[in-house]
Structure formats: structure tokens, C-alpha cells
Amino acid sequence: xxxxxxxxxxxxxxxxxxxxxxxxxxxxxxxxxxxxxxxxxxxxxxxxxxxxxxxxxxxxxxxxxxxxxxxxxxxxxxxxxxxxxxxxxxxxxxxxxxxxxxxxxxxxxxxxxxxxxxxxxxxxxxxxxxxxxxxxxxxxxxxxxxxxxxxxxxxxxxxxxxxxxxxxxxxxxxxxxxxxxxxxxxxxxxxxxxxxxxxxxxxxxxxxxxxxxxxxxx
Length: 218
What we know:
- Helices cover 36% and strands 28% of the residues.
- The protein is α/β, with parallel strands linked by helices.
- The strands form 3 sheets. Strands 4, 5, 6 and 7 form a 4-stranded mixed sheet that branches. Strands 8, 9, 10 and 11 form a 4-stranded mixed sheet that branches. A 3-stranded mixed sheet has the order 1-2-3.
- α5 (151-164) runs antiparallel to α6 (191-202).
- The longest helix has 14 residues, at 4-17.
- The N and C termini lie close together (8 Å).
- The mean pLDDT is 90.
């Protein structure tokens, strides 16, 4: 088991190793495996990339992300320009259903809304806009709505997907499914396994909501 000091050192090394992270103004503190990130970054993408880098480090049990996006002068854009760029980015993505997602912008904070049949389409919309200049934050309020399927069929398909995928131990994962909502309970060995389990749940036909309550245990 890593000490908090060892974990802090590994996290800072991973952030230095990640080429898309440039900010030197990020503070990292660790308490009992839970990481708190503070400070500023120059873009929203870097905020996202920093959190993703931290989750790749073995031993991280949780992340409290308190970073602030402090845009550089040449990245400043007004909300109208940002909204136009967002609309174009969504229109140009082949994964986002045409006319199903809209955006609103207030002081660089973006809210995505709409309704799509699959979670990957919601994720694609988020990915399409998080890298754009002038964006300070993205709130994804897109609703996933699919045709209803039987609860047992949803549970069975998720269990099969977990067994096929990169989740080492499925016996520690409990699946609850009802009315399109899936809840995952139990333990996994890494953030990747937790994310993979969530992805498997979202990929089942008929799933409209997933609550991933899996704990990362080492």
C-alpha cells in the first residue's frame, strides 16, 4: 500500500509525463488515498486532462477537483463566438444526432442539453466542445432516452459484457436494473475497471441512466 506521500509523488510525476498538461500552478494534496487538486489551468481541456491523469495512478481512491480555468489573453472570446463554435462543432460530429443537442453559454460556462438514444452520443457531444477556445466549464445535461427492454435482459447483457471486457473480477460487482436505470455496487481494482464497468452498463440497450457506485479498492 502506497503512503500518501508516495502517491503524491507518483501523481506529480504522471502530470509531468502527460504532454497535454502544461500548467505549473496545480497543487496536489493527498489524504488516505483521496486526492485534492487546487490551483489554475489555462484551458478547460487541461482541467479535464489533469483529472484524467490523476485517475490513471494506482492507489488513487478518489479525486476532489477544485481547479479554476484562467484563460490566457489570446484565448478570451465572447459568449456569442463560443456559442457559434459549439454549434459548428456539434454539427460536424458524425456521432452527435443532427438537431438533438443544443448549447447555452454564460461567461464561458457551457451547458449542453437535448435528448439522444445512446450515452456514447452524449459523450461525443461533450468531447466535441471541451477542447474549444474560450470554454471555461462544460455541464452535460443531455438526457439519454432509449426504448424500454426487460430488466433481466439488461442485467444479463451487462454481466456478459463485463466478463468479455477488461474487468478482472466480476464477482465483486452487483448490478441492479429497473426501468432503464442501472446501479453498480461493489469493488474494482482500478479507475479503468470502474470506467469500463460503467461503459458496459451504458452500452446495454434500453439503459437511460447509470449510477456507478463502484469503489476502487487496492
